[in-house]
Amino acid sequence: MKGDYGNGFLKLSTKNNKLAVADYFNMYNTNTESNEDEDLGSGGALVLPNLEDASHNVWQLAVGAGKDGNIYLVNRNLMGKFNTQNDDGIYQEIDNELGGGVWAMPAYFKNTIYYGAQGDTLKAFSIVDAKLVAAPASQSSVSFPYPGTTPSISANESSNGIVWAVENHGGGAGVLHAYEASNLTIELYNSSQAGSRDSFSDNKFVTPMIANGKVFVGAPTGVIVFGLLQ
What we know:
Blueprint: E1 8-13, E2 20-26, H1 30-35, E3 46-47, E4 51-52, E5 58-59, E6 61-65, E7 71-75, E8 81-82, E9 92-94, E10 107-108, E11 112-116, E12 120-128, E13 131-132, E14 138-144, E15 152-156, E16 159-167, E17 173-180, E18 183-190, E19 200-201, E20 209-211, E21 214-219, E22 222-226
Parallel strand pairs: 2-8
Antiparallel strand pairs: 1-2, 3-6, 4-5, 6-7, 7-9, 10-11, 11-12, 12-13, 12-14, 15-16, 16-17, 17-18, 17-19, 20-21, 21-22
C-alpha cells in the first residue's frame, strides 16, 4: 500500500503514545474505484458489538459502505489487508444489495444493520451466525434522494425500537420519518402528515438525535425539536 490508506478500513495503534497503522482492509480494485469516483471514503464505518456464531466463536467486527454500494464487514482482529486479485481476505462482502452510493453511517439495533443509500429505500439487514443476511429483511416504501439518509434508533432498552431518518429534498422541505425497527414497511409517523405544522427546511447529511423523549433535527438556521403533543 506504500502508506496510502485513503480508500479502506484502518485499525490504529496508540503504542508508545503514537498513532500507527496496526491493520487495514482495502478492496482489490481500489485504484479503479477511486478513478471512477466510487471510493469507499464517502461512508463511515460502524464498530459492532461482539457477535457469536453457531459454534460459539466470538467475532469483533465493523461494517461500512461507500460510493460503490457494496457492504463490507471486516474482522477487526484480522482485517484482510490488500490483494490485487480479489477480496478473499475480507470477512464478508455483500454486493449489489444497496441501490446507490452511501454518504452516511449505518445504524445498529438487535442484530440488525440499517442502511439508507442514495436513491434507495431504507433497508434492514439481519445478522445471523455472525454474518449479514444478503437480502434485506424489510425496507421502507419511501426512497431517499441524495445523499441518502443516516438513520438513528430510539428504544426502551431492547424493546419498542424506532428507526428515525430524514429525507432530503435539495434545499426544500425535509421530511422526518419514523419506522418500526422490526419491520420497516410499517411507518409510524412522518413530518408531512400534518400539513405545514411539522414542516422544516432541509439540510444535507442530517442525523436525527434522540434524547429525553424528543427528536432533534438540524436545519440551516437552527434545530427543530419533535415531541409528543400535550
